[in-house]
Write a structure and sequence with these properties.
This protein is of the alpha/beta class. It is built from 18 helices and 13 strands. The two termini are 27 Å apart. Bound molecules: NADPH dihydro-nicotinamide-adenine-dinucleotide phosphate (NDP).
Length: 446
C-alpha cells in the first residue's frame, strides 16, 4: 500500500476508533485508490485524502415527538454533509434503531463516490435517526417526521442539500418530511427526492435502485457473453430495493427464489412471479406485515432467523443492509455455484466476503456502483423539478439504463487501467474518487 495512504488510514483509525462501519468503508476506498496515489503526486500535495475523509460538517440533533398515548419521546437525528465538490449534497435518510454516527458517516462517505460515478453533479451526504417506524401508527410517523424536519430544514435546500429515502424512509415518510419542509420554508422546490408522482416525484424513482442493480448485473454478465436469462437468483430484504430487483429479474427472464426481512427468509422454488410480487408489495408497503406471511400464502418454505445465502443459486442480490454477507456466507455462495453478486444494499458484504469474491473472480458489483441507479434517478428528479417538467416512464428508464451502462463502463475501464480487469471494487472506487479529487485540487484549499 502507498505510504501516504497507510499514514492517512492510521490517522483515520486513531481519530474515529469507535466508528466501526465508517472505518470499514474508509479502509476499502483508500486501499483501492492506492495505485492512483502512486501515479499522481498532486493528490498528496493537496492533502486530498486527509480532506476527503473529514466531513464538511456533521449535524446531530434532538428530535422530540409525542406518541399516540401523549407520552413524550426523544430520538437522535443526524445529517452528515460529507463533500460538495462536484454538486449539492445528496443522499438518503435512514430511520432504523441501529442508526448511529458511524453508520451515517459510512453511508455518507460511500455516497461521495457513488454520486460521482453516476455522471450527474451531486455531492455526498447521508442522514437519519434511530427512530423505528416499525409498529408505529401513521400519526406517530407523521409527528416524528415533522419534528425531524423542524430542525433539518435550515440545513437543506434545492441547491444546498437534497435528502431522499433509505431503510425505513419510503414514500410515506418522504411525503410527511416534504409537507413540513414546504410549510416552514414557504417554498415548493425539489428539496427532497422520492416525492409523490402528483407533486414533483419522478416516474421510475421507486423502481430505480432495484432495476439499476439488475442492469448492472446484466452489463457484468455481458463481459462474459452471458445474461440473466434462466438464472436462479437469491434476493435478500423485502423492501423497496428487493421488490424492484425481483421485478427486473423476472422481466429479463431470470428466476428470483428468495426474499427476507430481519425475522427470516422465504424460499420459493417456483419463483416469485409478478402475481406473488404484487402480494409482497401490498404486504410490505401497505399492510406493513412480515415476509413470513408469504410462506403461508404461497406454500413456500420459511426459514426463521436465516439469510438466503446457503441456497444454491447462479446470482445473488443482497438488498437488505450492511454486512449481511460474511466470509463464510461468501464461501458458501461460491461453493454452491454463484457466479455473480450485485449489491442493491450498501456495503452488504463484509471485508472477508469481498476478499472471497475477488479471489474467486466471480462477477462482483459493489453497492457503490451496482445500486447507484437510485440516486441517479433522484438526480433526474432534481433535473425535472428545476425545469418544472416531467419525463415519461420510458424516458426515465432509458436514461437510468444509460447511466448504469456508463457506470459499468467507467468502473471496468479504471480496473483495466490499473491492471486488474473486472475488479469492480477497485474500478468503482478509482473512477468515483478521481473526479472528486480533481475538483478539490482545482478549487483550492477549502
Ligand atoms: P427498506 O426499508 O424498504 O427495506 C429494507 C429491508 O431490509 C427490509 O426487508 C428490512 O427488514 C431489511 N433489513 C433492514 N435492516 C435489517 C437488518 N439489520 N437485518 C436484516 N434485515 C434488515 O429499505 P431499502 O430497500 O430502501 O434499502 C435496502 C438497502 O438498499 C439499504 O442498504 C439501503 O442503504 C440500500 N439502498 C437503497 C436505496 C433506495 O433507493 N432505497 C438506494 C441505494 C441503496 P425489516 O422490515 O425486518 O427491517
Amino acid at each position: 500500500m502507498n505510504a501516504y495512504v497507510a499514514e492517512v488510514l492510521e490517522q483515520v483509525r486513531r481519530k474515529n476508533s469507535d466508528q466501526v462501519e465508517f472505518l470499514q468503508a474508509a479502509a476499502e476506498v483508500l486501499e483501492s485508490v492506492s495505485p492512483v496515489l502512486d501515479r499522481h503526486r498532486r493528490y498528496r500535495d493537496h492533502a486530498i485524502l486527509e480532506r476527503i475523509v473529514e466531513p464538511d460538517r456533521v449535524l446531530m440533533f434532538r428530535v422530540p415527538w409525542q406518541d399516540d398515548r401523549n407520552r413524550f419521546q426523544v430520538n437522535r437525528g443526524f445529517r452528515v454533509q460529507f463533500n460538495n465538490a462536484i454538486g449539492p449534497y445528496k443522499g438518503g435518510l435512514r430511520f432504523h434503531p441501529s442508526v448511529n454516527l458511524s453508520i451515517i458517516k459510512f453511508l455518507g462517505f460511500e455516497q461521495i463516490f457513488k454520486n460521482s460515478l453516476t455522471t450527474l453533479p451531486m455531492g455526498g451526504a447521508k442522514g437519519g435517526s434511530d427512530f423505528d417506524p416499525k409498529g408505529k401508527s401513521d400519526s406517530e410517523v407523521m409527528r416524528f417526521c415533522q419534528s425531524f424536519m423542524t430542525e433539518l430544514y435550515r440545513h437543506i435546500g434545492p441547491d444546498v442539500d437534497v435528502p431522499a429515502g433509505d431503510i425505513g424512509v419510503g414514500s410515506r415518510e418522504v411525503a410527511y418530511l416534504f409537507g413540513q419542509y414546504r410549510r416552514i420554508q414557504n417554498e415548493f422546490t425539489g428539496t427532497l427526492t422520492g416525492k409523490g408522482i402528483n407533486w414533483g416525484g419522478s416516474l421510475i424513482r421507486p423502481e430505480a435502485t432495484g432495476y439499476g442493480a439488475v442492469y448492472f448485473a446484466q452489463e457484468m454478465l455481458a463481459t462474459r457473453k452471458d445474461s440473466i436469462e434462466g438464472k436462479i437468483c437469491l434476493v435478500s430484504g423485502s423492501g423497496n430495493v428487493a421488490q424492484y430487483t425481483v421485478e427486473k429479474i423476472n422481466q429479463l427472464g431470470g428466476k428470483a427464489v428468495t426474499l427476507s426481512d430481519s425475522d427470516g427468509t422465504i424460499y420459493d422454488r417456483d419463483g416469485i412471479n409478478a402475481e406473488k410480487l404484487a402480494y409482497v408489495i401490498e404486504l410490505k408497503n401497505i399492510r406493513r406485515g412480515r415476509i413470513k406471511e408469504y410462506a403461508e400464502r404461497f406454500k413456500a418454505e420459511y426459514r426463521p432467523g436465516k439469510r438466503p445465502w446457503d441456497i444454491p443459486c447462479d446470482c445473488a442480490f443482497p438488498s437488505a443492509t450492511q454486512n449481511e454477507i460474511s466470509g463464510d456466507d461468501a464461501r458458501t455462495l461460491v461453493k454452491n455455484g454463484c457466479i455473480l453478486v450485485a449489491e442493491g444494499a450498501n456495503m452488504p458484504t463484509d471485508p472477508e466476503g469481498v476478499e472471497v469474491f475477488l479471489a474467486h473472480k466471480i462477477l462482483y458489483g459493489p453497492g457503490k456502483a451496482a445500486n447507484a441507479g437510485g440516486v441517479a434517478t433522484s438526480g433526474l428528479e432534481m433535473a425535472q423539478n428545476s425545469m418544472r417538467l416531467s419525463w415519461s416512464r420510458e424516458d426515465v428508464d432509458q436514461r437510468l439504463y444509460g447511466i448504469m451502462k456508463a457506470i459499468h463502463a467507467s468502473a471496468y475501464a479504471a480496473s483495466v487501467e490499473y491492471g486488474q480487469p473486472g475488479n469492480y471494487v477497485m474500478g468503482a472506487n478509482i473512477a468515483g474518487f478521481v473526479k472528486v479529487a480533481d475538483a478539490m485540487v482545482e478549487q483550492g484549499l477549502v
